Amino acid sequence: MTALPLPSDLIRRAQAADPQALATIYEHFAPRVYRYAYGYVNDYDLASDIQSEVFLRMLESIGNYEDRGWSISSWIYRITQARTMDTLRSKQRYGCAKLDEENVLIDGPEILMGTAFENKALRRAVQRLCAPQRRVILLRHVYGLSIEETARQMGRSIGSVKATHHRAIVRLNALMRTELEE
């Protein structure tokens, strides 16, 4: 699943506060924003709050959005990343009760995994990856960014991101085997 660039006329309409254009952008990105946030915070309600904050921030600043060679998905991702990191810092500062996990990665690669047991094992395995590997997996497979967009977001070279992605997949494979054996 790759993030398709949205037509520039849709973005211009959204900047003019066209409700249909804003709804289209929301429908396109909301599941990805939620899955990305959940991948970090591991809490349904908190991920939903982040999702709401991201789109509120998007609505407040869409008029200032300029296409400078970055797709709108990259712009929304940056907002998502900032809101998620702010939430994690706040969570560390004030603490937060952790809720029980269920299937949350809707419409992602985990559907191919089959059962809820395997989905839970996949989430645990992703959480056990080192931060750069987890971020590459989330950006590529949850948020749907290309290798180039992922490299830009992480401030790394394309080769570095490819290598990190490969190591993450190999590590996930080993972790999944361990998780499924337990």
Automatic annotation (TrEMBL):
Residues 121-172 form the RNA polymerase sigma factor 70 region 4 type domain. InterPro entries: RNA_pol_sigma-70-like, RNA_pol_sigma-70_dom, RNA_pol_sigma70_r2, RNA_pol_sigma70_r4_t2, RNA_pol_sigma_r2, RNA_pol_sigma_r3/r4-like, WH-like_DNA-bd_sf. One of its GO terms (biological process) is DNA-templated transcription initiation. Keywords: DNA-binding, Sigma factor, Transcription, Transcription regulation. Gene3D superfamilies: 1.10.1740.10, Winged helix-like DNA-binding domain superfamily/Winged helix DNA-binding domain (1.10.10.10). GO terms for molecular function: DNA binding; sigma factor activity. Residues 25-93 form the RNA polymerase sigma-70 region domain. PANTHER family: RNA POLYMERASE ECF-TYPE SIGMA FACTO (PTHR43133), RNA POLYMERASE SIGMA FACTOR HI_1459-RELATED (PTHR43133:SF8). Belongs to the sigma-70 factor family. ECF subfamily. This is Sigma-70 family RNA polymerase sigma factor. It comes from Candidatus Viridilinea halotolerans.
